[in-house]
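hiii so my PI (J.) wants the whole complex modelled not just the main chain, which honestly fair. so below is everything: two entries, each one labled with what it is. i double checked the lines twice but i was tired so who knows lol
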Amino acid sequence: MRRMLAVLLAAALVASCTSVNRLREAQESFNEAAALENALRFDAGLQEGPTQSGIVQNTTVQNGYASALLSLDRLEARDVARLKRDRLWGNVLALRALTQWKLGLTDQARDTAREVQDAGVEQVHPRDRALLLALPGLIKTDEAFAALQRLPADPTSAQRAATLRNVQVLVADAGEAIDRGRGAVDAAHPVHVYLIQARLAALRNLQSAHERLGEGDDRALPSLRRVEVQRQLKELRCHAERVGAKPEIVAYWANRFSLTPEAGPCGPGT
Amino acid sequence: MPGEAELIMFAIRSAIKLGHQSRQAYVDATGRRELVLPLPNFPTAITVDSAGGYFVGEGGRHVTRPSKLAELVDKWKARTPLTEAETEELRVLRCECFVQDLAEAGLPVTATDVSTFDPDDLRTLLTVRQWARGTDPTPSALQRVGGALIEIGVDYLANVPGALNAGSTTGKLAQAVLVGLEPLRFSEVKVSELPARLFVATLETVSTQPALLTGDPKVQELVRVTAKGLAVDVGARVTAMRAGGDTDSSREERVAEWGELVFRSILSTGGRMVLEDPRTFLGVEPAGEAALISEVGKGVLGLVLDGPDGDLSRLFSREGVDVVLKAALTTVGQHPEILVRGKEHQGLRVLLASVTSELAQYDTVLTPAMLPEVTRLILEKTGENLEQLWPEMATKPEKHLLLTAAKTTLAILTKAPPAGARWKPTFAREDLLAVTQTVFDELSSNPAWLLAAAGDTDARLATALQAALDVLRARGTSQLGVATATEVLQASIRAVALRAEFLERMPAGTAAAGKPVLAAALDAMLATIFEPPGARAAWRLTRTEAVVGIVEVGLGELARRGASPERVAALDAFLKEQAAGIEGGRAWDLDTFTTGLRTALGA
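here's the output for the full assembly
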């Protein structure tokens, strides 16, 4: 009797957990792919261009993201309803948008991210809200990087000027989106550590564009942007300390930019 | 007490409440699950352009004119191609100057390019929680389950009035379970139904165990440490099963069920022992948390669940667990060093796991419930003679002489009879246990023989048992009962333990040349008994007490006087003469037989 009851309850529990299980599968696949991508990226510090392309094209990484998206695509209408009832819809949106972004489905990723506006506040939790708002900035940063990658080995001055202008616009847009994401969460939220680095990644593309495409004194990052990088480096230091990360990450980024973090103690907002 | 129907209704309501809360906890855990976030693409390398841009911008203060650096920077700025050496020089200069910048800014100077990270650091940096610390509005899994437990407690109270009164003993014990479970993170301890199982088990067990209702605070401590220890162990098992991809909900449920069963057994069977000696069983080790009682519980759980082919729950009943647990507690109570010494305090667990892997195969449909009893025998005898029987406890806990002996004994006695055997019955569980116990008794009470035989105990035992069994198979008839054969085997073991000469080989020229003396002696006795000169002798000698008596006296006298081939021949002649006498109408009894044999062997 007891066993039968347990089996019935277990069956009911499993049936009611299908939608959540799909989400968890997707989380699992995404996390594995992202961890591998991060490891490849930070291991590949000294190698330019080809390594970056290698990360983007890495089959294991791509399969991981594809698998995550597949799990989410399997959600049926009743699963969606159940996830909304469970207030997990924001998790699904964030994961789907991130996965689409990493698979190069940028238009779809933007569309998914826009759904955050329709989803109620109770559906989208802080980290996911910040990520969905910042996602267009992550896409623009990738576009800036791709624009630099597409340049021929010996570009004409017109090509250089056009590409630099393009990257400047993309990075400016990226900065705005990422700042919107950061503005959506408390100053103490750990997602800042990620979003600051995303911002630095955008600025690093801008710096590279100036160094490669600028003319004369414009072959360095403009001074206002340098100040911005230094401020971001300070914020990264402060937030990293808060989450218990080692300071090497600040040294890493400072070295990329050849810039030191802004001086001064960490305040409540940093 | 409530009736069965009420209890079933109570169980249904409890299960529904817990099921709902468990699912909700699962949903919460999914919502708050950490995500590893990938960064967008950016140039990771520090190139000559990085160096040039630095000196044009922030590093401009390092560029004095005229200088080689200024020349290089001007060339780079004007896009004049740099040689390889110039490129390298510009990069090196950037590095040196930037290190200076870092030092002047009072920052930790790193001359090297920090471009790789410890994987753990990277995970910390790019793995992001849903909520900032302290802002998660969802209750923890334990809170959720705890809430359901409160409801169940209330429900139980409705069935058993007064049971959960905070001032009552039962109420205090129920609280002790919750206190034991409170520090655990049930997002990590994977079986969320376990707390309820332990909670209900406590309530049910104490109601049938008056000894636990004394109000003694030690009982609460017993409940607390045991609940915690088992919950952690069960959680770890489920985690490992999931990591290995070798699980499903019914297997996980079974692990939880056995965790509950061991918990009940500890409360009911071990409770009294623990209360009589709380210092030993509830004493806390320096490491902090591992009371002996919970370690024993984990060991017994391992015995049930750590079989070579998965769990062995088919071999254990509630009674089996009680038997092993009681023996384990007794042994550990006598020798706490079994848990305290050795490799990470794993002595008992390793021994029990070895028992499982070595002996589970002998627990069959024909010999059910063997394993708990053999385990009990091993544990009890271990307590009597720890040093000799488990000499390498600290370093190789899996090497235990009784375990080896049990394996040898069972392997020989459970083997199918050979094709030409005359006597073919198989030994039942009780017979196997009786012989095993005799083997253990002799190993335990004859340390000198044991020590002299160290290293080849297994070979001696195997030789003796196999020789005795071979004779039984060859000479026995339908008149030889299995119980009688078992006593013959026991007598053989006892004789060999007294006289190692029984295992020496018979000389060439004798009928049993090359066989052990034991085999020759037994053969002489059983041949006379089962192939007598006539019906009168058969009638008299094949009676159970006569068979056992003759074998015991025969082997006993040989052991006393010396088991030589000559004495075996004398025994053979004496037996034949006795059988002929009976057939001729002479009266016969065991006392007369004993006296006559002594005379015959003495001559």
